[in-house]
Amino acid sequence: MKRVYYILVLFLSAGLIGKAQTPANNNPEKMQWFRDAKLGIFIHWGIYSVDGVDESWSFYNKKMSYLDYMQQLNGFTAKNYDPRAWADLIRESGARYAVITTKHHDGIALWDTKANHMSTAKLTPARKDVLTPFFDALRRTGIKTGAYFSILDWSHQDYPGFIKDSSRYDIKNDTARWNRYRNFYQAQIRELSGQFNPDLFWFDGDWEHSAEEWQAKKVRDMILSHNPNAIINGRLAGYGDYETPEQNFPITRPSLNPWELCMTSNNNWGYHPDDSAYKTPYELITIFADVISNGGNLLFDIGPREDGWIPTEQVHLLKELGKWNSKYSDAIFNTDAGMPPGHYYGASTISKDSSTIYLFVPAHDRGKIVIKGLFNNITGINVMNTDQQLHHKIVGKISWSPVPGLVYIDEIPEDAMDEYMTVVEVKLDGPIRLYKGKGGLSVD
Ligand code: FHN
Question: CA-CA to 213 of 20 to 30 Å: which in 92, 195, 265, 321?
């Protein structure tokens, strides 16, 4: 059954699910903070954090019985939960937004939903809405708020994929029952919208029904009528604002829309004490640089334990990422996507005024740095956060040809390199102009 999950993730990462249409009323201005944000922190926290099992999937894939899974309700204490400390750590990472699982496929809400009794407030020793204090802490810290919400609910008695008994039904044969479920899930979205007014809705689970069956347009309209600036991710059956490739790095840039790669810190979304396969800070930073170079955001996931404690490996990753982000923030935030492939063998970004190129050089990459197809004259090159200027040489420029030569930039001295990834700032004589031709005599 685990295969089911992987087939699904394959679809997702291939963009076959979560493909964002650009709805007619999509106003690009509202997306600007998201485009400039570059980094969000994803938080998978729920009753699955008690035994450290796969979120919802552990009963769906029959790794454990539904009843055993739900026994975890008795262990969710949140006794060390410190939402302000969470928000401070998120801020320290350099992230501009955070997305928390307000309700995963298992149907257990982190807020005191009035739509049913399935919540941490009613059914766990925590006995509280843990969502409100987190969103308050985020807002106090200036971090944008994101609400992950699973529109499917494998615990709801009127959901066709209801797992506890085999009462799966075809919605065409029982429209009243499907309408009851639809009214339920939309009521919960109205609660989230009205009570929490998140800056971003991160929907999940749209793969089991069509946009019409979900009434996706109605849900989008409902959210935007309450907050026209709310951003919706690309998992509302085609009614989202951006694409959401998952785990696998997109080799082809997803689209001109903004896009966001969500990725785990080890191999699991939620707390998994048995999973020590954490990415290293170097791997995280190189992935992040690659994402922003391609015009995307990275939504990097952590999975706190049931009591609210965040694994030390995840804290370390966020802190190391934060140190790097603050050292090179001008090259990262409020920049545009870098040069298209072919101009530089690595990640790059471009300043908003297009007159500066930021080259990302992985640690201990030695040798000269080459830029191809740059028409501009270079007015200065420095290793960011150092006094180190670098010289360059133009190679292969034929005096009578308009085709630009190759730019060979001196190697970065060892003592000027960052332990993970160094950023070289290349100042141009004006807005960047790139050669796209096939060489030879013609410019194009
Ligand atoms: O099924 C979920 C999964 O548990 C996890 O929440 C990821 C995070 O993006 N989303 C779905 C799989 O794509």
Answer: 195
- Residues framing ligand 1 (Cβ under 6 A): 9, 12, 55, 57, 204, 246, 262, 269
Given a contact cutoff of 8 angstroms between Cβ atoms, the answer to whether 402 and 373 are in contact is: no
Residue 214 near residue 151 (C-beta atoms within 8 A):
yes
The strand pair at 231-232 and 348-351 is best described as unpaired
Which atom number of ligand 1 is nearest to the Cα of residue 12? Answer: 13
Q: What is the pLDDT of residues 380-410, one digit of tens each?
A: 999 999 999 999 999 999 988 889 999 999 9
Ligand 1 centroid–CA 54 distance in Å is 10
Closest-lying ligand 1 atom to the alpha carbon of residue 262 = 9
**Residue 393 shares a structural domain with residue 318:** no
Q: Is 20 exposed, middle or buried (0-12, 13-18, 19+ CB in 10 A)?
A: buried
Residue 312 lies in a domain: yes
91 shares a domain with 124: yes
**How does pLDDT run across 61-112, given as a tens digit for each residue?**
999 999 999 999 999 999 999 999 999 999 999 999 999 999 999 999 999 9
* pTM, full prediction: 0.94
* Whether residue 141 sits in one domain with residue 84: yes
Q: Hey, what are 60's tokens?
A: 């769906």
**Contact between residue 376 and residue 406 where contact means Cβ atoms under 8 Å apart:** no
User: Would you say residue 437 lies in a domain?
Assistant: no
